[in-house]
Known about the structure:
By secondary structure, this protein is mainly alpha-helical. The chain is built from eight helices and two strands; from the N terminus they run αββααααααα. It has one domain (5-229): Arp2/3 complex 21 kDa subunit ARPC3, CATH 1.10.1760.
Amino acid sequence: MTSERRPRALTTGQLEIAALFVTALVTAQLTAAKVLEFTIPFSLPVTGNALVLPGAALAYALTFFASDCYAELFGKRAAQRLVNVAFVMNFVMLALVWSTIAAPAARSSVDPAQFRTVLGASTNIVVGSLLAYLVSQNWDVIAFHKIRELTDGAHLWARNIGSTASSQAIDTVIFVGVAFFVMPQYVGIGPKLPADIILSLVVGQYILKLLIAVLDTPLVYAVVGYLRSRDYAPAHPSTAD
């Protein structure tokens, strides 16, 4: 590839992963209100034979896949910029959604109350998810590069699973704790849930996220390998701090 085309190709690879990250993040915010329940063929101590988790968990798990690919290809500093820019985009999305909810509805519109219920996430969900995102995603980048240092750049699978497993645990505890315990108990916002339900939400959400982290490891290898083979990413991992 010529020196002229190479910067453009690198920009393309970077843009694709960044777009996936932000899309998954915004989707997670919009789907947080629905509670999912997956039946499993065996019983676990806390959750029984079902995993109960917020709808955002599926899309949000994809953000860690994208951020690990981004961190591997473009370095720690670039990954931290992505995380922080996307954090600001959360507020842009919330402003757009709430301005649409506040705008007058035409007769032919869907029911405004239903529209608000589906898209207007409650305050406890918003506060919990934003705080969890800010802490866990920044930790994910730090842990990813710390594991890379400890393994001298080898074993991509170790830093993908290790960083995601720890950051998902942080995210799950902060989100469920703030949204369903701290905000209802001490601020009076959101439904008060029994302790056993809160614990089952933590366990159910984390088990699914951890499973996704393990299953997406081959995809991380595939994406990293493909982008490097097409000169859409640097040939070697960036060591930028």
